User: Fold this.
Amino acid sequence: MTAAPTPRRPWEETASAGVSEVRTLALDGLFTLAGGRTLERVDVAYETYGELDATASNAVLVCHALSGDSHVAGLRPGEDPARAKPGWWDIMVGPGKAIDTDRFFVVCSNVLGGCSGTTGPASIDPATGAPYASGFPLVTIEDMVDVQAKLLDALGIDSLAAVVGGSMGGMQAIAWARRYPERVRAIVADATTPRLGAQAIAFNEVGRQAILTDPDFANGHYYDALAQPDVGLGIARMIGHITYLSDDSMRAKFGRRLVDRSDYRYEFVHEFEVESYLAHQGRSFVDRFDANTYLYMTKAMDYFDLAVDADSLAAALRETRARWLVLSFSSDWLFPTASSLELVRALQVVGAEVSYAEITSPYGHDAFLLEPERQHAYIAPFLAHAGSEDR
Amino acid sequence: MTAAPTPRRPWEETASAGVSEVRTLALDGLFTLAGGRTLERVDVAYETYGELDATASNAVLVCHALSGDSHVAGLRPGEDPARAKPGWWDIMVGPGKAIDTDRFFVVCSNVLGGCSGTTGPASIDPATGAPYASGFPLVTIEDMVDVQAKLLDALGIDSLAAVVGGSMGGMQAIAWARRYPERVRAIVADATTPRLGAQAIAFNEVGRQAILTDPDFANGHYYDALAQPDVGLGIARMIGHITYLSDDSMRAKFGRRLVDRSDYRYEFVHEFEVESYLAHQGRSFVDRFDANTYLYMTKAMDYFDLAVDADSLAAALRETRARWLVLSFSSDWLFPTASSLELVRALQVVGAEVSYAEITSPYGHDAFLLEPERQHAYIAPFLAHAGSEDR
Assistant:
């Protein structure tokens, strides 16, 4: 008797979204931000996966988190599939995956203020011919969503089958419900919150202080300098990383293990594995991310409050016409279940169609990047009903 | 009908331990540290409260936490009682309080490596005539305890009625059980752990990196410089502060309230109350604390592992003859209940007399400094049995 072949599971990497290239769109006209300032020119870097159907009704917008970009799945042109790391949510986006590119036209764009192609602090200010740096206006989650809406206009997409996002991406998904309720038919708010609490703001603030006080930060004008604020950005990233994991997952992953010996060295060096992990995370982040963007993204997250100018969360959600799926993770203490439940309750108050689950996972906030199977189990059936037929 | 006068509660500040003055003792002989290095001269700054009885049997050693000192209760000479802040554990130490100075002779000394009178990195190295700075040897919790034991020798105290400590002070209390089991009759391990997990080490490490990478740190040799590593120490303290509070207590204390206006400013300034609170905590800490000592204390905490050279926590505790009281706080996520329970279970395995409680409190790790009444309820009766009669 021979064993039956193991069936291929849809969230496995074998089902790749293929090769994806970044395109850039220059938005028409002046762009006005929530803070009142304007940008003369906004470029949006975006990628698409799958095919837009004839009625432009199968589009799913995926929104990225703090350190993400438009490259949500698959490989970049020229990358070796055997060695390259695929896009940041390859576990969820691809043929047969939860966000099925055989069925949906998936759009993902780098957010306003980002550092991966969309206009941000490193972009050239047309007024000066030099990078904006700290002259770039502060952006909000709503500003990011407005840019996405203009991108969709340009792509001929009036109505989204769904908007999906985790963490800061989930904030954008939530903001869509209020900003463009008529343009979105389903919303997946994953590991996110309608507003941060004091603890999360505090962690963001300490990270910002590490950057702002780095002598190489130079008030943000470091782009042409010999040194960049790598130390400050590295420290900010280390703090972030601790908050993305859970105590349990860190205990399981590192415990008290020492790097390369069983005895203490009695020096200020990296001795514990967790120290060397953090140092690596800090170092590798500064190679791919801009310190100014880190400041702008964390501030946008802190500012985000769905109910900031409404009487309540429910009042802010009164216009939603979308079906909702809200997911949280049991060990996520940065975007805890309690704040997802606040959102769910507000949606129930306004009579929205809302489905909710707390997924049991040891991985903390990072679970939304690390739990393909459990997220698939909720997101795939939810999106199965999000086709063109529900327009 | 007149209302009966409210009875005075023993934990109220009215029962002051009085005025306490720091004394300094120079230890005899060379002091050898766990790491193998030696110190030619160790001075210990200490304070005492109450009277030592004729048989020197009523001494209670109180051990301080990371940022504490020997001034556990009462006022310093010359301080105005109406305006001065009393010692760091005034809620627990004084006449009629849980650690009753009418009954016990309370000793509290600044730890080895500290910056409040006991020999540490800011002290003069006799070999060079200059401050040790980063030339000071790394210390362990066991080294701190050894210095305390020598201080007690000099004070004529063979046996402690109790050793009591919270947080890093609790680590010292636990270390006493292993290092000098014959000298301690009761142990209160409050908001502490027999070893830190990866998450707590990670937070300590990020704080250290903020200091070590501050350009004004100058490899620790900043004592005679114009600038000190205040920025790095301030950031380390901010991180620490977030971990000392709980998400709930921060939500209750600050929420999303803005400092001085109801609208966002769209600038990188302190807008949320929690940001300005953290900035204040960072600033005020650098005025009273030494960055090098911060490095040495956090490293000592990271190193502490009661079972480091034993097969198990229980094996490490086999020699204990003390009665134990272990306390944890429900919202303390830095020294969580789970690690207190590890200690309790190990003590049960070796048949030690151990009493345990998780105190319900919203205040996170700081609860041990903020919950007089609930701690009194456990510590006072526990110590009531810790007199000379139990020798």
Summary: The domain at 23-196+310-390 of chain B is CATH 3.40.50.1820 (Rossmann fold). Residues 119 and 316 of chain B are 29 Å apart (CA to CA). The two ends of chain B are 51 Å apart (CA to CA).
